[in-house]
Amino acid sequence: MYRKPALLILFLLIRFAAFAQPDTISITLDNVQYPYPVKFMPVNTDGQDLRMAYMDIAPANANGKTVMLFHGKNFGGYYWTNVIKAFTAKGYRVIVPDQLGFGKSSKAFIHYSFHKLARLNKQLLDTLGIKKTYIMGHSMGGMLATRFTLMYPETVEKLLLENPIGLEDYHAFVPYLSAEEQYKTELKTTPESVKKYYQNSYFTQWKSEYDYLVKIGANVSKSADFPRYAKVAALTYEMIYEQPVCYEFGLIKVPTVLFIGLEDNTIVGKGLLSQAEQAKHGQYKILAPETAKKIPNAKLITFEGVKHIPHIEEPEKFLKALEKEL
């Protein structure tokens, strides 16, 4: 006799929860609108059937060349819009994957490695019939772009690195955290903590036009599936920490350009360091010229007063510089 009222109460509670959190974003960003249609490549790895999301944008007047864009750790393909438009305006076909574990791609419990991700991106290019491409990587995507270039130099026409992380070996000075320990930290994520981090780490001065980045990055924490998202974030943190590329810059054999916001002070695991230790590392004013010297015939382009994401913080200057390197 109490079944119907109980069901009614349950229904109302569910409706209220949905209403109370209208901005909740799924961990595969299902309710995030990307700038171009998203497709999926089936992937089988570590005994799991997964899928890798990507955008494939054709230019109006094709020049026969392709560029592939690799996003940073806290992002997906959605933040490349202005760069995509700049490339397609010049006739380039643009491929924008969401790496496995990120964006709209599967959030899988697997062993993450830059080698594995590089191979999956090569598989995507092969599937699309692309034999040669420019590779552009931002932040963590710069580490991946470097590994991809080292593995498949014959595929890379030119390597473009925008404020890549991994210019130094983090595990040489950042205390070790296991993936399980990092997972507990990730679970503490809130919209407030994300906004504070983005404000302090990514831009010299906050603008309201950056709020959409926070909305996407923060509101996944409201999802019932957030623990899975947090676990994957911990696993990919471990990948960055344990798999440096900085010792292999001298092995790069393709033309390379670094685009660097000089106010950047990114350190993976920065919160584990004292203020004194933080001051010793993550200084892109020092790291960028040092890295450019390690890479044979690399070119360094710098942006004064810019932090971690030049293509968003100083889009006009960045795109003008990028255009000259095409």
Description:
Strands 1-2-4-3-5-6-7-8 form an eight-stranded mixed β-sheet, with helices on both faces. 40% of the residues lie in helices and 16% in strands. It is of the alpha/beta class and 326 residues long. It has a domain of 221 residues: Alpha/Beta hydrolase fold, catalytic domain (Rossmann fold), CATH 3.40.50.1820. Helix 3 crosses helix 4 and helix 5 crosses helix 8. About 5% of the residues have low confidence.
Concise description?
This protein is an alpha/beta fold and 326 residues long.
Topology:
Elements: H1 3-20, E1 38-45, E2 48-57, E3 66-70, H2 81-89, E4 93-97, H3 114-127, E5 133-138, H4 140-151, E6 156-162, H5 179-186, H6 191-201, H7 211-219, H8 226-242, E7 256-261, H9 275-280, H10 284-294, E8 299-303, H11 310-313, H12 315-324
Parallel strand pairs: 3-4, 3-5, 5-6, 6-7, 7-8
Antiparallel strand pairs: 1-2, 2-4
Helix pairs in contact: 3-4, 5-8, 6-7
Name its key features.
single chain; 326 residues; alpha/beta; Rossmann fold; 12 helices; 40% helix
CATH-derived topology of one domain: Rossmann fold
Shape: globular
Strand-pairing-aware structural class: alpha/beta
Q: Which residues form runs of ≥5 with pLDDT under 50?
A: 6-21
Distance between the termini: 73 Å
Order of adjacent strands in the largest pleated sheet:
1-2-4-3-5-6-7-8
Provide a count of the helices: 12
Largest sheet: 8 strands, mixed
Output the CATH homologous superfamily of one domain: Alpha/Beta hydrolase fold, catalytic domain
Gyration radius over CA: 20 Å
SSE arrangement, N to C: HEEEHEHEHEHHHHEHHEHH
Helix content: 25-40%
Roughly what is the average pLDDT, rounded to an integer? 93
How many beta-strand runs?
A: 8
Output the CATH class name of one domain: Alpha Beta
GO molecular function: hydrolase activity
Protein name: Alpha/beta hydrolase
Organism: Mucilaginibacter gynuensis
InterPro entries: AB_hydrolase_1, AB_hydrolase_fold, AB_hydrolase_sf, Epox_hydrolase-like
